[in-house]
Amino acid sequence: MTVVDERPAAEVGAPRKRKEDARLITGRTMWTDNLTLPGMLHLAILRSPMAHARITRIDTAPALAAPGVVAAFSGRDVAETQGSLPCAWVVTDDMVHPDHPPLAVDEVRHVGEPVAVVVARDAASAVDALGAIDVEYEPLPVVLEMDEALGEGAALVHSDKGTNKSYTWIYDSAEAGHGQAYDAATAEAEVVLRKRYVQQRLIPAFMEPRSVVVDPTADQVTIWSSTQIPHVLRVLIALVTGLPEHKIRVIAPDVGGGFGGKLQMTAEELITMMAARRVGKPAKYTETRSESLLAAHHGRDMYQDVELAARRDGTLLGLRVRLTANMGAYLALLTPSVPLLGRYMYNGIYKLPAYRFECTGVFTNTTPTDAYRGAGRPEATYAIERAMDDLAAELGMDPIELRRRNWIGHGEFPFHTVAGLTYDSGDYEAATDKAMSLFGYDELRREQAARRESRDPVQLGIGVSTYTEMCGLAPSRWLGSLGYAAGGWESASVRMLPTGKVEVLTGTSPHGQGHETAWSQIAADQLGVAFEDVEVLHGDTRTAHKGLDTYGSRSLAVGGFALVNACQKVVDKAKPIAAHLLECDVADVEFSAGRFRVRGAPADAEGKTMADCALAVFAAHDMPGGAEPTLDAEAVYDPTDFSFPHGTHLCATEVDTETGRVTVRSYVAVDDVGKVVNPLIVEGQVHGGVAQGIAQALFEEAVYDADGNLLTGTFVDYTPPSSADLPDIVSDRTETPAPDHPLGIKGVGEAGTIASTPAVVNAIVDALRPYGVDDIRMPCTPERVWRAVQGGDRS
Amino acid sequence: MIPAAFDYAKPSTVDEAVRALAEGGEDAKVLAGGQSLIPVLRLRLAAPTVLVDVGGVGELRGVRDDGDALVIGATTRHADLLRDPLVARHAPLLAQAAAQVGDRQVRHLGTLGGSLSHADPAGDLPGAAVALDASFEIAGPGGRRTVSAADFFVDFLTTALAPDEILVSVRVPKRPGWTTHYEKFNRVAQAWAIVGVAAAVRRENGSIAEARVALTNMGSTPLRAGAVEQSLAGSAATVDAVASAAGHAAEGADPPSDAFASADYRRHLATVLTRRAVLAAGGIA
Ligand SMILES: Cc1cc2nc3c(=O)[nH]c(=O)nc-3n(C[C@H](O)[C@H](O)[C@H](O)COP(=O)(O)OP(=O)(O)OC[C@H]3O[C@@H](n4cnc5c(N)ncnc54)[C@H](O)[C@@H]3O)c2cc1C
């Protein structure tokens, strides 16, 4: 009998449309706020209108009298029991780490800090009753600006700590044995660029506001939360509340975006837990957009004092970075570590003899900062890529030429960097050559010269960004050595169902990335089953019981590795079963293209499929000697190192010198993310990332007034761009497989954001260099650009 | 983002609407497209006790040819203005301004009358109405009255409408021989104007016979740029002449300083945008 080769087309690499999109896009799914439980109550949270004040009086009793209200309480009522929101990363032994009560007790330290809560039968009644709560505040001095906060006699955010400094952290390549000492290496420098770049404060602005539902009525307390980290959250809840871990179930149902903004244990989660447990009923809290912009953690907000020393021929001699990082009023989950992740990346893709990095974390009366897409790496890349363009201008050299003279050549990998990492692979030449030709670099330079010559009111600028990043967070040993409380492994399980269908459990927690599709593609290839026959389960600590969730471009790089290993174990378990069915020796069975065949059998021999084995195991009537009747397998993978995607982004901006308006005319992104599981998903990640990076360059900033009120508390004021404000993005790839990954993949979640911001600002500055402009503070609003052109105030 | 509780009335005639408003007293509010009012309610910046939804009043919607003018009902949506043939023919400036309002969703719900009654100085339609010298038909308990554009816009978010009155329609004179342009400058595509300029120009034998120019967001109400208009009247239809006239755009204006732009920058923008608007309106290159 001849059989048609039923080998499915290779799924990995295919541009599959995302299987989860129909339900996500239509909203016909389980967003946390869609959940309704019998008897469920609703919360509203009263937030501080003051940036710094003592709470001299607070009375929630009047709210109890309002219609529909079931309970109301303030921080004072729970002061002894509420615990403190955790910071999981202690970066220095002497880090100043103040208490962070979910509900403020005696003092509020930023506008938007929760002070009291109302629990009512419906959400409207809860909101209505907030007005009845009686609070008196005694204003305390407010400090918002970092240099001021570090100055002599500054007002203190935490008066009992005696300082606004949380920590100072230093890395020195000579001390660490990864390079020379900065001063010695740069003694003969012919040019030293000194710049302060400012990373403005951003708001992650995920699409789905945070929402949490707590059901305390069953044996296990169940928490549904719009979070990126259900597994980490479960552990944290156990540690903070004392509730035994096995009595806690956390579910991240479908989650509408996070960008690091939901990599957090939030005050709102703990407050909802307290409320539900106090009244003994399920309770829900969903924030408004305004609350989200005000109180969910912010990102970036750093001063970057950079010194880059070189010879006139462009050879880099050393880099010194002094970073001042705004913590906000408290340390949230990863607050102090975010700027420090940048320390590995300020050297970028360059060969630098010496590097010194100092970072000081500062408290101010603002919303705490924490991870935001890229977390430390976009900031670092911004500084080094801006500095490279500035240095090129200073040397009168083409910015790409300057980079070529200093980057790590493709023959030099693996390369041990001055920051202490080993870059495994890369081909910066190939990515740059491809980007330049897609972009039409030389033609655009000619057009730029012509516009300069004719004094065109619309000037053209070209911005370059050649970046790398570290993905696949993270080797557990590395995390431990840096003071992080948890590890960086990831898990995957495969369940073979009797009819040959497959359930894949992943410990990663997608919130828009398309894991269900990518994981299905990998499992389909590994197990020889159809894409449609794989169901990917995630986000529920009861089903996908083990994991460390999704952030830091880790899901595929680490979780994908675990999945391949789990699939491999399934195949290994199935082999003896198949041998038994084929009546041959295990050693003679081969698995390929979804079929087990006897070695040497014709390629069209029918053999046995995974489904045949699954059914045989389910029946278990005739197991080969002592075999356990299951094919299911679990694998946990702890990465041995990071992966290092890289790329070259080129941006052309038109700058209207009359109005200051910047228009991105063309944008080319050539990224090397290793092997690609699904090119559509990769392209989507790049486009979204580039959009977010352009948003930092041109549009977004969280602005406080002098009293610490957030002026950009709505989308009208925060001005996130829409598609109408963004260019067509030309994205392409080079492919240097990650040598240590079974699929050769590197990670792509943050690449676009990391690369694009400096490309855009470099292009604006490049357009305006003839006007004497060498920097513009982000976001480069029309007024700022116009003022720079006028030669006036450039701040 | 939950508004305080309110009562809701949905009249089907202008008289019923006026009566419902009167019954509601001081705290009654007209609801049209809700694109300005609902956000205000959700942020609890206002808490009217009665909303009178005029969306069901047939008389208020649509565009009618009335000889030397168009009469446009107050609840005519921005999106209606964009595709109405009478507007395209006789008052294209309204469509040019409406096209710049917010985004598609906002344009399909927001109304001309709502925009004018709300009188946000950053709104796009008020400037266009002023440039076109529109007049406003208002109904109240005492009957109907007509107010000129110059008198309708009184102050920041304040019009000649009394709390118990309803804007019924806007009368826009036809202007044969005039050409128009609306130039808007904003931060992101769906945002309000930092500055906007509505320009209408009548050309005659290579010169500009007459021009009307109104500025958006250069004061607490839309402003006519009188000095620009005077300087343009009878001037040559050249780039230089227009640029020189546009230099007067900010004269007499008192623009705000806010998170989006300083007053100085707005003054500067007004001159650049006025030049561009007049050049585009007059087809002058
Ligand atoms: C996201 C967003 C972006 C926007 N961007 C812009 C923009 O770029 N440019 C711009 O110009 N506008 C913009 N708007 C506002 C939009 O133009 C609104 O449509 C307009 O301001 C109000 O019209 P409305 O029909 O929605 O009025 P409503 O919101 O229903 O009412 C507004 C006010 O007018 C009163 N009112 C309404 N109709 C009458 C009437 N017939 N008689 C008496 N009083 C009445 C109401 O009582 C209320 O006080 C935007 C709105 C949104 C939500």
Helix and strand topology:
The complex is a heterodimer of chains A (795) and B (285).
Chain A: H1 21-26, E1 41-47, E2 53-59, H2 61-64, E3 69-74, E4 107-108, E5 114-120, H3 123-130, E6 134-139, H4 146-150, E7 165-172, H5 173-176, H6 182-185, E8 191-202, E9 211-215, E10 221-225, H7 230-241, E11 248-251, H8 267-279, E12 283-286, H9 289-295, E13 299-310, E14 316-328, H10 338-341, E15 355-363, H11 377-395, H12 399-406, E16 415-416, E17 422-423, H13 428-439, H14 441-453, E18 458-468, H15 476-481, E19 490-496, E20 502-506, H16 515-527, E21 534-537, H17 555-582, E22 589-592, E23 595-598, E24 608-609, H18 610-619, E25 633-637, E26 646-656, E27 662-672, H19 679-699, H20 715-718, E28 729-733, H21 751-768, H22 782-790
Parallel strand pairs in A: 1-12, 10-11, 14-15, 20-21, 27-28
Antiparallel strand pairs in A: 1-5, 2-4, 2-6, 3-5, 7-15, 8-13, 9-10, 9-12, 13-14, 16-17, 18-26, 19-20, 19-25, 22-23, 23-24, 26-27
Chain B: E1 7-9, H1 14-24, E2 28-31, H2 37-42, E3 50-53, E4 63-65, E5 69-73, H3 78-83, H4 85-90, H5 92-98, H6 104-109, H7 112-118, H8 124-131, E6 135-140, E7 143-148, H9 149-152, E8 153-155, E9 158-159, E10 166-173, E11 178-185, E12 195-204, E13 207-216, E14 223-224, H10 226-232, H11 239-246, H12 263-282
Parallel strand pairs in B: 1-3, 2-3
Antiparallel strand pairs in B: 4-5, 5-10, 6-7, 6-10, 8-9, 11-12, 12-13, 13-14
Helix pairs in contact in B: 5-8, 10-11, 11-12
The complex binds flavin-adenine dinucleotide.
Flavin-adenine dinucleotide binds next to strand 2, helix 2, helix 7, helix 8 and strand 10 of chain B.
Structural key phrases:
heterodimer, A: 795 residues, alpha+beta, Aldehyde Oxidoreductase, domain 4, five-stranded mixed beta sheet, 22 helices, 28 strands, B: 285 residues, Uridine Diphospho-n-acetylenolpyruvylglucosamine Reductase, domain 2, Uridine Diphospho-n-acetylenolpyruvylglucosamine Reductase, domain 3, Enolase-like, domain 1, 3 domains, five-stranded antiparallel beta sheet, 12 helices, 34% helix, binds flavin-adenine dinucleotide
